[in-house]
Amino acid sequence: MKQFRTLVLAATLTTAVSGCSVFDWMVYKIDIPQGNFIEQVQVDKLRVGMTPEQVEFVLGRPVLRDSFASDTWYYVYQFKNGRTNELTRKELVVNFTDGKVSTLKGDYEVGDDFYTPLDAGRP
């Protein structure tokens, strides 16, 4: 009878420890950043009429350039917190018309000076 009780107790403990995530808080999980990390300060530097080279200088290379419409660039950033599994995703889409920036869409605010071209005020 004593062996049976020990066996049942061992089976119960084994099932509880392996089947559930009781000790999950003790396991270290890394943070996983993916894509282009862009700050609002960088987006504020963008202007209508910038060339693709100028945009690449400010923001870096895009994660995706649309194969069918090469005038659309996607900057995507995703961050997964290892401890909480919280997922943060930010996106910025830059559209070009005739080789110049025309519009911005996404999770960032368009800067106050965005609609002022870089060469405004130059003779």
UniProtKB/TrEMBL annotation:
Membrane topology classification: Lipid-anchor
Keywords: Cell outer membrane, Lipoprotein, Membrane, Palmitate, Signal
Domain (Outer membrane protein assembly factor BamE): residue spans on this chain: 35-103
InterPro entries (UniProt xref): BamE, BamE-like, BamE_dom
Subunit architecture: Part of the Bam complex.
Record function comment: Part of the outer membrane protein assembly complex, which is involved in assembly and insertion of beta-barrel proteins into the outer membrane.
Protein name: Outer membrane protein assembly factor BamE
Organism: Ferrimonas gelatinilytica
